[in-house]
Amino acid sequence: MNALRELTVRPLAGLPMFAAGQSIAQAICTALAAEGDGLRDGDICVVAQKIVSKIEGRSIDLAALTPGEEARALAERTGRDPAMAQAILDESAEIMRPHPAAIIARHRTGHVLANAGIDASNVSGGDAGTVLLWPCEPDASARRLRAELAEASGVRVAVVIADSMGRAWRIGTVGTAIGCAGLAVLEDRRGRGVDLYGRTLQATVIAVADSIAAMATLVMGEGDEGTPVAVVRGAGRWTCEDDGPGAVSGLRPVEQDMFR
After folding, report:
1. Beta-bridge partners for 60
2. What is the span of the domain harbouring residue 161?
3. Which of 83, 164, 173, 197 has the fewest C-beta atoms under 10 angstroms from its C-beta?
4. 171-180 pLDDT, tens per residue?
5. Are residues 142 and 31 in the same domain?
6. How many domains does one find in the chain?
7. What sequence ranges are listed for the domain Coenzyme F420:L-glutamate ligase-like (predicted)?
8. Are 186 and 78 in a shared domain?
9. Global confidence as pTM
10. ∠ at Cα 138 (137, 141), nearest 5°?
11. What is the distance between the alpha carbons of residues 245 and 209, in angstroms, rounded to a whole number?
């Protein structure tokens, strides 16, 4: 397969401080129009998980939770607030590694990450105990946003919902696709491509959605930049007509987990 000739990532300025019920699609189209541009067929809109969670009303007040016995034991073991431990348990299918640095959990969606994705950064009221949960179904959220963008712009785009996640054996976080629509999540080149010496590729599966999420997160920033959306242009070869398999298709099956 030929290499890409050009790939651009553009952080989108001028977006509002999102709250429950607002339209991300309309805000994207309005911000692009203010810059004299608009969405094009094959564009990929990478959207920070936090704004999706905000417009879906996924914030909770930890003070409203009553920690159970399991939560109190987890809190004592990890030095966490018992209410936070309860929130993590509520959002998790499995606690994999309880540690003072982070509680590594398998989220209900199947993603493995620290603290089940629960976070207070860039959340109004975070200092007072308000935290933000992931969308209930990130792939469904991506599909809805894709449909809204198509209706608002009249073009076919893809959507990636990205969050920053750590990686086994590596320091630091990388933007990762937790929801996806209209995009090939993986490019399986096993038995199809060849290397420079003509040998058939045996193990190459490219994490397309994660790579795009990581690239976009670099320009979006994770602090006070205020740019929770980036438009990726030039990667149309990986977009598809339908919604595609979603980010869950990129998760390694539990029975193949090599780090348990």
Report:
1. 131
2. 8-56+137-250
3. 197
4. 999 999 999 9
5. yes
6. 2
7. 15-234
8. no
9. 0.93
10. 90
11. 11
